[in-house]
Structure formats: structure tokens, C-alpha cells
Specification:
By secondary structure, this protein is α/β, with parallel strands linked by helices. The protein folds into two domains: 3-221, Spore Coat Polysaccharide Biosynthesis Protein SpsA, Chain A (Alpha-Beta Complex); 223-292. It has helices at 16-31, 48-58, 73-83, 102-113, 129-145, 162-168, 178-184, 206-220, 223-251, 259-292, and strands spanning 3-9, 35-41, 62-67, 88-91, 117-122, 154-161, 189-194, 299-303.
Length: 308
Amino acid sequence: MKLSIVTTLFKSAPYIVEFHKRASDAARQLAGDEYEIIFVNDGSPDNSIDIAVHLSEIDNRVVVVDLSRNFGHHKAMMTGLEHAIGERVYLIDSDLEEDPEWLLNFSDQMAIEKCDVVYGVQKTRKGGWFERWSGHLYYRIFNWFVDLEHPINIVTARLMTKRYVDALLCHKEREIVISCLWVITGFKQCPQIVTKKMTSPTTYNISRRISHFVNVITSFSNKPLVTIFMIGIVIFCSSFIFALALTVNRLILSKPLAGWTSVMVSIWLLGGMIISFIGIIGIYLAKVFSETKQRPVIIRAVYAKSRQ
């Protein structure tokens, strides 16, 4: 198998048939008849699964992986990659905001630059001024927290070699932030400027964006915990210096200490120590917590004539 095209389905019913046609045309130009298209149904509430299963019945190159519920876009993509058997794997969203025909340009660049990954980058972020501004702010905060050279304004679409995909699948964490995994997997990765369309309202509302941001930071950075620890150290040192000053005033200068002073010093001293200790323990707990949850992505069924 020369090529696997992997995509996910969530409220994708209006786009599946056209996506299948355009992706098939692009795949035939690149790989002849040696390709497959893998649809991963991520618990879509519409009839996406019915349309995809029908395509698998009339096209033996279509594979449909039906998840038991909505596990999230990133886990669905990883599940699709696990089922890909092609020498090269083209990952793309199915909503036609990303053109299936990018595959051909990506393949040309991969051959010229001899890289393992060619990924799309938006020259200008799509959406209104608020979406562009918030996206720019997101990446600034993200890059401050996470010690990664994460590309700005990347899209899902990317062409990958099988050895890169195999390496990517070695990551076993369950709280997946796939864009960061793309980066830390390594290999030679080359960007290509693309223009992303707007075909439907985004499913990432404010609460989901915040949740995703928190997941990114807690999965790839311990800076919040280190910051808490450093704040505790500063409070502890400040209160210790203040305590020394009060002691000098009492013992050397014979100035009486007001009652509230000793209380405040005790609160600051103990508070600083407690915050420091919580920060230290939190660093270890965060590492343990991220490694102990091994909840699986459950597949309800796989539909594919060629794999039966």
C-alpha cells in the first residue's frame, strides 16, 4: 500500500461525499490504485457514519473506524493513524477547509527536500480580527510556557512517512495534544504555506479552547508548578528577612513588638513554606498523574471490505 489518507468525522455529513471524491482523485494521481481512505467516526451526532459506511460498501479502498463515543479530535486522529498501513500517510480534516489536493504539492516537496513530514501553515490565520488576535496571543503564551519550537498557525493537513507515523504512535499518553507530539517526535519536518477556507462554524467554542489550552500546558510544561514554588520561596525569604529585622529591633534596639507582628510573621513564614512544599509535591504528582491514566479509545466497529 503506497498511500493512506486519514480523516475524522464529527458533524461532517455535508462534506463526506465530496471529500471522498476529491481525495480519491488526488490519491490516484499519486499512488494509482494503491491507496486507502480511513474515516474515523468520532461519535458524530449526525448521519456521518451511515454515509461513510455506504462509501465503504461501494469502494473497497474506504475503511471506516467507528469509535464507541466522542473521544475528541486528537484521539480520533491517533486512532486513524494506528490503522494506516500506507508507506506515506496523509492526515487531513474532512470539512474541506483544507484541500485534499494539497497532497500533490506536499508529495512534491517531500521528494525535493527528502523530509519525513510536510505540513501546512496558514500565511494568515482565518477568521475575524478576534480569532486572529486570540490565536496570536495563544501562541505567544503557549511558547512561553512550553519549551518547544511549535510552528505558528499550523493546520491538520500533513503528509508523513510511515517511519515517522510509527515513531509518533510510540507516544502512549492518554491526554493527547497531537500538535506537540508532532513536534517532539522529531525527524525532518518542512512547512508549506496554504490557504485554509471557511466552510462551517468552528466546533471549538471558548470553553473548549480554554480546556485545550489547560491540557497543553499541563501536558508539556511544569512552569506553573515551578512558578508556584518560586512564589513560595520569595514569600518565605521575605518573611524570614522581616523576622530578622524584628528580632534585631527587639534585642538590640529594645523596641517592643506589637502582638500582631509575631502573628503576621508566623502566617507569612508558614504560608511560604506550605506553598513551596505544595509546589514540590505538585511537580511529582503531575508526572505520576499523567502516566497512570491509561484509559483506552474504544472502537465499536471497523467497516472495510478489503480487511474483512
